[in-house]
Hints:
By secondary structure, this protein is α/β, with parallel strands linked by helices. It has helices at residues 2-33, 39-47, 82-88, and strands at residues 34-37, 51-57, 60-65, 70-74, 92-97.
Amino acid sequence: xxxxxxxxxxxxxxxxxxxxxxxxxxxxxxxxxxxxxxxxxxxxxxxxxxxxxxxxxxxxxxxxxxxxxxxxxxxxxxxxxxxxxxxxxxxxxxxxxxx
Length: 99
């Protein structure tokens, strides 16, 4: 009787461990691999030709650097010159909404 109980407890502990590992792998990948840049650092990287692509959604900029690093940046205001700077530095603009 005690053997069956311990076997059952071990089984559920293993199942719980597998579920925790699965959930953490799905949730951890996005935030750990995405670099948060303040807007001035984003503009500096654009000026230094270190940004390869960007998607603009309002004041949110997400994209990829030339080294392959994903990033996100938030503009504190609507910058009317950002699109021309991106194009001048040959950044691929994937989507453009509400600039």
